[in-house]
Amino acid sequence: MQRVATHTLFGLLALMCLAVALFSARFLLPEPIMAEGMAGHLQARPAVFLAHVGGGVVALALGAFQQVTWRGPRRRWHRIAGRVYVIACLIGAVAGLGLALTSTAGPVASVAFSLLGIFWFGTTAMGWRLAMTGDFAQHRRWMLRSLSLTFAAVTLRIMIPLAEIWRLDFAVVYPAIAILCWVPNLMLMELWLRAWGWEAKVPAPLRSA
């Protein structure tokens, strides 16, 4: 039952990640559509903004599937895609930190998004380091933390429309969204890891092709 629930949950998360990745990829078009809300970033700091979007899109598209490819014949894909995921997260996090530090949404939002960038970078880097040292059990735990922060892109895009539907004052509610889009994600993942753990079995070495 736990396995079925976990696979169902990750399947749903993967679909949501793909949907947001596809929607966010519009900013990478030569002439972005529906980009009015981010016009300030596009005009003031286009390289940093596009680096953040590009890193986020790749991380979203690859991240959730990494949790179902770490065993068996798909491990070779897991290893290749994992490297790409790490690079995408690190680029997205550094660029996101740059955007946060120059945000015009107020100090609370700026601090919240800055901390998101720092934690996203840190959890991903820790997961990568543990993989390099062969501690795959802890590697998976840290990469799940990283994935929970990657998922902030999804929760952010759920909360903003809800604020508009409920006709909340965006200037007032946005700092709260900047916190709520990632802190609960990380807390829930930590609770899940503490409650259910993660398999500590080390996969068998990959055979040469």
TrEMBL record:
Pfam families: DUF2306. The chain crosses the membrane at residues 9-29, 49-68, 80-102, 108-130, 142-160, 172-193. InterPro entries: DUF2306_membrane (IPR018750). This is DUF2306 domain-containing protein. Keywords: Membrane, Transmembrane, Transmembrane helix. It comes from Brevundimonas kwangchunensis. Signal peptide: none annotated.
